[in-house]
Amino acid sequence: MTHEEILQVLKDSGALLEGHFILTSGLHSGQYIEKFRILEQPRYTEMLCKEIAGMYKNDKITAVAGPMTGGIIISYETARQLGVKSIFTERVEGKMKFRRGFTLSPSDNVLIVEDIITTGGSVKGVIEAVKSCGAKIAGLSCLVDRSNGEAKFDVPFNPLLVMNVVNYEPDECPLCKSGSVPVKPGSTNK
Questions:
Q1: Per-residue pLDDT for 85 more than 80?
Q2: Which pLDDT does position 188 carry in this prediction?
Q3: pTM of the model
Q4: What is the pLDDT of residues 102-129, one digit of tens each?
Q5: 143: three-class secondary structure by DSSP
Q6: Is 182 within a domain?
Q7: Which DSSP helix (H) or strand (E) runs through 49?
Q8: Is 123 domain-assigned?
Q9: Which of 16, 33, 58, 108 has the most other CB atoms within 10 Å of its CB?
Q10: Can you give the residue range of the structural domain that contains 23?
Q11: Using CB atoms within 10 A of its CB, is residue 3 exposed (0-12), middle (13-18) or buried (19+)?
């Protein structure tokens, strides 16, 4: 899929929102991607995860891992496309951990996936969890990198779509200064 086709999926699904938002990171933005408008529609999820799987089809992936919540769906569908197992991390006392009997070994070659990356904090936790098991990491992918190139990782990073979205520190937000009241979509309550 081309950049334009992926962007069109965001628009067609109703995932790309315009307004004044407080992101999970605490930053403010005039754009928000409501990933669940994509994830609630299996055809869009399958279409985008097929693109991710295609980038790694020759890498002998043995597992796909993602962070709870949206990363679970991306992990599952990408793993299904690759014919491997899907696992996910959960935040336990502030750190991403594998629970529910999920295990990896040094013989595993793991693809890490995420829905939307703004700061990269959640996937950095997944990277650490995979490394703590001794497994290899083939790469990291996501539906949308909205970090403006700010999120850096010590593994190969191949997002489906890179969006240059302006984010603001709350004290410097011009939307707030103009009197606009931000809303906090999503439900992580960080």
A1: yes
A2: 53
A3: 0.88
A4: 999 999 999 999 999 988 889 999 999 9
A5: strand
A6: no
A7: helix 42-55
A8: yes
A9: 33
A10: 3-177
A11: exposed
Q: What is the DSSP letter of 18?
A: E
pLDDT, one tens digit per residue, over 123-165 is: 999 999 999 999 999 999 999 998 877 899 999 999 999 988 8
For residue 129, the SS3 value is: helix
Rounded Cα distance, 181 and 19, in Å:
10
- Say if strands 136-145 and 16-22 run parallel, antiparallel, or are unpaired: unpaired
| Residue 22, domain CATH | 3.40.50.2020
165-to-20, 144, 146, 149, 161 alpha-carbon distances in Å: 12, 11, 6, 10, 12
Number of domains, the chain: 1
- Any domain includes 29: yes
> Contact, 18 vs 30, CB < 8 A?
yes
**Are the C-beta atoms of residues 171 and 152 closer than 8 Å to each other?**
no
Phi, psi angle pair for 142, to nearest 5°:
-150, 165
Q: In the Cβ-directed half-sphere of 86, how many Cα atoms lie within 13 Å?
A: 20
Residue indicated by tokens 């240059």: 164
What are the DSSP E strand ranges found in 59-186?
63-67, 85-92, 95-98, 109-117, 136-145, 161-162, 167-168
Is 65 domain-assigned? Answer: yes
Q: Which two tokens stand for residue 56?
A: 């790694």
Give me the pLDDT at residue 187, please: 57
